[in-house]
Amino acid sequence: MEILALKDLSFRYPTEEKDTLSHVSLAIEEGEFCVLCGGSGCGKTTLMKLIKRELAPHGALSGEIRFCGKKQSELSSRESAAGIGYVLQNPEAQVITDKVWHELSFGLENLGYDADFIRLRIGEMANYFGIAHIFREGTAHLSGGQKQLLSLAAVMAMSPKLLLLDEPTSQLDPIAASDFIATLKKINRELGTTVIIAEHRLEELFPIADKVAFMEQGTLLSFGTPREVCRELAAHKISLGFPTAARIWQKLGGGGEAPLTVREGRKFLAEFCAKNAPISQKNDKEKTETSKKTLGGTPALTLSGVYFRYEKNTPDILRGATLDLREGEFFCLLGANGAGKTTVLRASAGLLKPYRGKVQTHGKRAVMLPQNVQNVFIKNTVREDIEDMLATRGASKEEIPTKTAEIAEKLGVSHLLEKHPYDVSGGEAQKCALAKVLAAAPQILLLDEPTKAIDPAAKRELARIIRELCAEGTAVLAVTHDVEFAAENADRCALFFDGEILAPAAPQAFFDANNFYTTAASRISRGILENAVTEADIVRLAGGVK
Fold it and tell me: Taking CA atoms, which of 46, 324, 501, 542 is between 20 and 30 Å from 473?
């Protein structure tokens, strides 16, 4: 039975000249798990919000939306509010009450349930989602992962038939993201709830999805099972975001069905290497060692035994944190949500003052791009924001238009210059905010989750921009949950734990030593190929056949 049907759906925002969605037709069966993917700004969020009537944007809409066989316009307020649940990308925007228990009960109270039923239901939800231990905690004290799980639990308390999620793992660390996705799978399999999730991180979603819908420029380009979509779009740039096992299979010219999991990837790789002789791994290791980037000796940012706490009688967040960042170096710091990684950036930017230890920028200008990029914007258009930063940095009126155009072209946001920063997608906002930050001409660039909400092609562009900045002598320190991005692009990586920056090392050594904070490629290749922590490593080693 179809639970959701979209027929020839088109939508245009009031100020736009072209449709954001164009003739989208889609049918989702009851109980299916569907992944909605596509590049930043392709229309995923707009489509999801149109399905959730209460969040539908204003604009010109044509076509038809049916839920459980009824036209959307015929649904009662209760059917629409309770029947379709929605989890936002940013949990800060969804959590609205002061206590965890109140957040769980809020929707039920608004639906008019009696107190006894509400107590029973929120007790059940707290246990099911493993948040009973924080039941009476204040929501302001929760980590990002806890807030996202709370948002999901609060929505599920209303027993929706259809659950919509807009990039819910974009702000979660790898372990928290895995746990969150496992919870979604449990909800789908055990409760029969239909799930539609819009995401860029597809590594763990493709293996559990029944269907994948791929969008491009407002149209539905492909719809089918994950393996069907992997084969159909193998040559498309979206394939950069496919599971690592599938990408390796594509590049090694594998036949049969595409592997989607680490286990399937290991089986494929082992069989491939058994038939083909990999290149000499000793020679490859020597080649890798000699080709490593040699960093300059000039220090850019130094943290020496830094201690910091937010309030006098609270635990230390930084406990002797030490870091030596050099000119032209790209350093990635990984770790769990709430561990204190952002505190490291804020201390490095001079926004926080340690009570012990020293932070030195050696006379260089440090600029920080925060995780919530909306905090960067203060003007009515992207152009005005960039121009304002250039003017603050002392650019003349004659220089500003040219420099604005150069920066926008470099970041690929020229087409967004006249838009309000709040009217662009999450991925587009990330790039616009970076454009404004680069207008400040930083010598030390501090990035908090720079790949959040951007598609794989945009990540490659970001990596290119960072490499160019580093080549010019800029030092870049990024806090990230994106282990693949760090492995492929960083000069050094480290883990932040218990207030310290642990074991800085080159990506190959760092990720090879880890079991959980590591790449899917590393898990796939262990025991089969040595020194392989990225997809490119595996393809180079396994593909070097005679």
Answer: 501
Q: Is 313 exposed, middle or buried, given 0-12, 13-18 or 19+ CB atoms closer than 10 A?
A: exposed
Place of tokens 């954001």: 20
Q: Nearest-CA neighbor of 159 among 206, 211, 194, 115?
A: 194
User: Measured on CA atoms in the order 452, 458, 460, 462, is the torsion positive or negative?
Assistant: negative
pTM of the predicted model, to two decimals? 0.84
The class (CATH top level) of 2-233 is alpha beta
State the pairing for strand pair 356-360/299-308. Answer: antiparallel
Residue 459 is encoded by which pair of tokens?
């990540």
Give the type of residue at 153: A
Strands 475-479 and 444-448: parallel
Residue appearing with tokens 């404004």? 436
What angle is formed at CA 25 by the lines to CA 21 and CA 27, rounded to 5 degrees? 130
Q: Which of 178, 239, 245 has its CA nearest to residue 205?
A: 178
Q: Residue 116 CB: number of other CB atoms within 10 A?
A: 8
How many angstroms separate the CA atoms of 389 and 420, rounded? 16
Query: Domain residue spans in the chain?
Result: 2-233, 243-292+519-546, 299-518
Is CATH 3.40.50.300 what the domain over 299-518 is classified as, yes or no?
Answer: yes
In the three-class reduction of DSSP (H, G, I as helix; E, B as strand; rest coil), residue 378 is classed as coil
How far, in Å, CA of 75 to CA of 444, rounded? 54
Residue 54 pLDDT exceeds 90: yes
User: Using CA atoms, how far apart are residues 5 and 355, in angstroms rounded to an integer?
Assistant: 59
Cα(333)–Cα(339) distance, integer angstroms: 11
> 437, 369 in Cβ contact below 8 A?
yes
Q: Where are the alpha helices (DSSP H) in 129-166?
A: 144-156
Mean pLDDT of 234-245: 87
- The band of 473, judged by pLDDT with boundaries at 50, 70 and 90, is very high
CA distance 299 to 326: 4
Domains 2-233 and 299-518 share a fold: yes
